[in-house]
Design brief:
- The protein has 207 residues and is an alpha/beta fold.
- Helices cover 29% and strands 21% of the residues.
- The protein contains 6 helices and 9 strands, in the order E-E-E-H-E-E-H-E-H-E-E-H-H-E-H.
- A 7-stranded mixed beta sheet has the order 5-4-1-6-8-7-9, with helices on both faces.
- Helix 2 runs antiparallel to helix 4.
Length: 207
């Protein structure tokens, strides 16, 4: 399999943060998005950013900005589709997605995805982490390995009104790549001002 392309999902409207781009918030002198790029870029062949609105606000990243092709802010699956369409233009077979507000995700994200999806005709996998107290396994729908071969299927599902990531991935027998929780959940994301305070504390400790 060719090395996947990376797509950072930043298409959400950040309502719990009061609007704006969560990825552009400061985290120890750099934007959250910069932290995400630095974790993802070494693991993939190239990186693009899924975001809507004026792409100029991301000009410092020097990344291609891919808007949703489905109107109405339908959620992460629209960003996945935008990434798959971009990947098809590049001749790639797969993409790996990461959320723009999740700065501490695993540095072995891509290798673990490829391992989880080994042998699948259309490699498809979601990340997951286990709650330390309850033992419940939580899938992370914005962190996934997605096959370009299924992009038209995804487009049709979105046009039919499907919005929930796991409904679509379950239809196609997605694998699960479980990542250990070492002190903090590696998929801790910044949704609120309080979360940002926690993220800054984690970053100061050198997570």
């Amino acid at each position: 399999m060719k090395q996947p392309l990376g797509v950072i999902l930043a298409g959400g409207r950040s309502t719990r943060m009061g609007g704006g781009d969560k990825g552009l918030l400061d985290l120890e002198g750099r934007s959250i998005l910069t932290h995400v790029i630095e974790r993802l870029a070494p693991q993939v062949a190239d990186v693009a950013l899924n975001a809507n609105g004026d792409p100029a606000r991301f000009s410092e990243t020097k990344l291609p900005v891919l808007p949703d092709s489905v109107a109405g802010h339908p959620g992460p699956l629209a960003g996945v589709l935008a990434g798959l369409d971009w990947a098809a233009e590049q001749g790639a077979d797969t993409i790996v997605t990461a959320a723009a507000d999740t700065p501490f995700f695993p540095c072995d994200l891509v290798p673990q995805f490829l391992l989880a999806a080994e042998g699948m005709e259309h490699p498809l996998a979601l990340a997951a982490s286990r709650d330390a107290e309850s033992g419940k396994l939580w899938r992370q729908p914005t962190f996934g390995l997605w096959p370009v071969a299924l992009r038209d299927d995804l487009r049709a599902a979105l046009n039919d009104g499907l919005r929930k990531v796991v409904l679509w991935t379950d239809l196609h027998g997605a694998a699960t790549a479980e990542f250990p929780v070492m002190g903090i959940d590696p998929f801790f994301n910044v949704n609120t001002p309080q979360d940002l305070d926690v993220a800054r504390s984690i970053a100061r400790k050198g997570q």
